[in-house]
Amino acid sequence: MLITAIEPRRKAMSALYIDGEFVMNLDTQTLIENRFDVGREIDDDELHEIIALSNERRAKEKALWLISYRDHSKKELKDKIKRTCDEESAEKAVERMEELGLVNDESFAERYARKLLFTKHMSKRAAVYELVQKGIDKELASEILDGITVDSYEQIRAFIDRKYKNINDEKIKRRAVSALQRLGYGWDEIRAVLEEYTEEDCI
């Protein structure tokens, strides 16, 4: 097989033509590093190898781009990379990010758990569920949440104070109860805090 043309494309990609026919778009830097030049004869093994190398480079670049914006769990990062790369390349990219210390499920879970608790005012139970959805092992998620001290009643008060002005209005109260239940709080906890607001109005 003869490389008959290599034409630049967008996003650092190049179109590879073999025997006059377009084959696929590959990473330009990978083609240069492996001396895939016009006029070179290649076989099937070399073609498959350059495709794999191109995919791996693109997957790593995607991984770096994603984690430059925010933290990701390993599963979350892999799932996002897989949207544009094959699974093996995505797996290798995530492993490389882990080796470099750029991805760490435990530290991600710690930071994300605190955000869920203290910014979104979720219950610990709901926070565990959210961490598991991000790909964190359930045992690890529970262990991390167990290590964070938080008062459920204070959480409920903080949420109500931030979101609802007149909590004793029945419509607003129902909305607040539904929202708090979605955040993982039980009715007994919610009722206990709501009674405090009623008592305050009676003073």
Describe the structure.
This protein is mostly helical and 203 residues long. The protein folds into 3 domains: 3-99, Arc Repressor Mutant, subunit A, CATH 1.10.10; 105-146; 152-202. It is 63% helix and 10% strand. The chain contains 10 helices and 3 strands. The protein has helices spanning 28-33, 44-69, 74-81, 87-99, 105-118, 124-133, 138-146, 152-163, 170-182, 187-202; strands spanning 3-9, 13-18, 21-27. Strands 1-2-3 form a 3-stranded antiparallel sheet. A hairpin with a 2-residue loop joins strand 2 and strand 3 (21-27). Helix 2 crosses helix 4 and helix 3 (74-81) packs across helix 4. It is elongated, with a radius of gyration of 26 Å. It starts with a strand and ends with a helix.
